[in-house]
């Protein structure tokens, strides 16, 4: 079990690295293809929307055929799609490659979480998922930092080749580590009844609340993260390497969270983690648009990343329990709304930034995050 979880964490590492690699390079992509920052954001949306949409397919398939099998097949294809992005000759080509990458990387993280939930009791699940998240956080750090560093040293295309090859190697490791491992299987409906499990979930109050919160979190906070590199480049003219390091700082905040998660769970509880995490994220966005020097961004993003994991990991843990007999379906629905929200949010952010600048965009996001966390923690109190 330990070997498989480690391999799943490596797969999550690669997915997050591929997902976040575009954050620091948005400005250089915009320049190369003669687009505004907002228009260049299409490469983020092109990844996020199919990543979210295909959760609805992978969830039921994984419940029926096995989570590890689906992860292995899809990640193998994703390595090819990631390498293809390096050969883009237009923003449309790059967006298409990112679209295919979104489809093929979509299964790994939610199905890994569902696999862990199938094998770990709820009382111990928050720390277990947090340990799994260490690989994801390192992937976020690596994707952001190497994306910026390679953009300065070798051009932005090289990183897609490196991450594509690394994804292929990681997929082979998981395939070898998971041989002959039994999995829980559940009945899954296809055809006309394909969406019935999702409809049944959304009829219940708790799943609706968790799903709605994830949708708003994705459209506000995760979409906002995508433009932080562009904001730092436009405002302070940082090098792409320094932008990559700044983007990676949010992941460092996540590592700090991993180190203290057991103590935080005991001290704050789930409601407190939601409330405090949301307030930290809101404060981070507000302060970001008023900092006088770029150096302030590094500790600020560590602080903001810590708040993000306080709230988001709690949401993820709650999502693992909204449908114990169909966790693949439930967590896939959660991931669908989260990433769909991010895709929609990036388009909205891009419009506001192009029309009015970064400050109104981030101040609006801060307000929504604060209100969202306050509302959701009150719903937990009443149940």
What does this 3D model show about the protein?
Helix 1 (2-20) packs antiparallel against helix 8, helix 4 (42-53) runs antiparallel to helix 16 (327-356) and helix 12 packs antiparallel against helix 15 (297-319). This protein has helices at residues 2-20, 26-32, 37-40, 42-53, 55-65, 67-84, 91-105, 108-119, 125-153, 157-177, 196-202, 205-225, 228-236, 240-288, 297-319, 327-356, 358-381. Helices cover 81% and strands 0% of the residues. With 383 residues, it is mainly α. The relative contact order is 0.17.
Task: Please give the count of helices.
Answer: 17
Contiguous low-pLDDT stretches (5 residues minimum) are none
For the record, give the distance between the C-alpha atoms at the N and C termini, rounded to a whole number: 34 Å
User: Quick one: overall form?
Assistant: globular
What's the average pLDDT?
A: 86
Helix content: over 70%
Describe the sheet with the most strands.
none
Strand content: under 5%
Structural class: mainly alpha
Sequence of secondary-structure elements: HHHHHHHHHHHHHHHHH
């Amino acid at each position: 079990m330990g070997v498989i979880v480690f391999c799943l964490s490596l797969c999550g590492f690669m997915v997050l690295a591929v997902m976040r690699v575009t954050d620091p390079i948005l400005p250089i992509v915009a320049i190369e293809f003669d687009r505004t920052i907002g228009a260049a954001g299409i490469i983020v949306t092109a990844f996020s929307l199919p990543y979210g949409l295909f959760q609805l397919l992978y969830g039921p398939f994984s419940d029926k055929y096995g989570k590890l099998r689906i992860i292995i097949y899809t990640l193998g294809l994703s390595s090819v799609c990631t390498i293809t992005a390096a050969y883009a000759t237009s923003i449309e080509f790059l967006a298409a490659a990112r679209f295919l990458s979104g489809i093929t990387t979509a299964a790994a993280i939610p199905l890994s979480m569902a696999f862990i939930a199938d094998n770990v009791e709820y009382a111990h699940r928050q720390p277990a998922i947090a340990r799994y998240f260490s690989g994801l956080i390192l992937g976020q750090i690596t994707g952001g930092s190497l994306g910026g560093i390679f953009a300065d040293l070798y051009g932005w295309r090289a990183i897609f080749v490196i991450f594509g090859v690394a994804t292929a190697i990681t997929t082979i490791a998981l395939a070898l580590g998971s041989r002959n491992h039994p999995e829980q299987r559940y009945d899954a409906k296809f055809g006309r009844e394909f969406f019935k499990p999702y409809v049944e979930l959304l009829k219940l109050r708790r799943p609706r609340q968790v799903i709605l919160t994830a949708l708003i979190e994705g459209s506000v906070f995760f979409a906002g993260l995508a433009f932080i590199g562009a904001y730092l480049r436009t405002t302070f003219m940082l090098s792409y390497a320094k932008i990559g390091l700044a983007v990676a700082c949010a992941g460092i905040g996540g590592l700090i969270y991993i180190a203290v998660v057991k103590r935080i769970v005991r001290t704050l509880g789930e409601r407190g983690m939601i409330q405090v995490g949301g307030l930290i994220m809101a404060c981070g966005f507000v302060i970001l648009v008023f900092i006088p020097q770029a150096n302030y961004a590094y500790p600020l993003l560590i602080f903001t990343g810590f708040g993000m994991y306080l709230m988001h990991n709690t949401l993820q843990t709650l999502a693992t329990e909204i449908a114990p007999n169909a966790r693949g379906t439930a967590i896939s629905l959660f991931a669908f709304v989260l990433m769909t929200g991010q895709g929609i949010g990036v388009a909205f952010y891009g419009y506001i930034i192009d029309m009015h600048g970064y400050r109104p965009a981030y101040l609006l996001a801060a307000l929504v995050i604060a209100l969202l966390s306050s509302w959701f923690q009150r719903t937990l109190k009443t149940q």
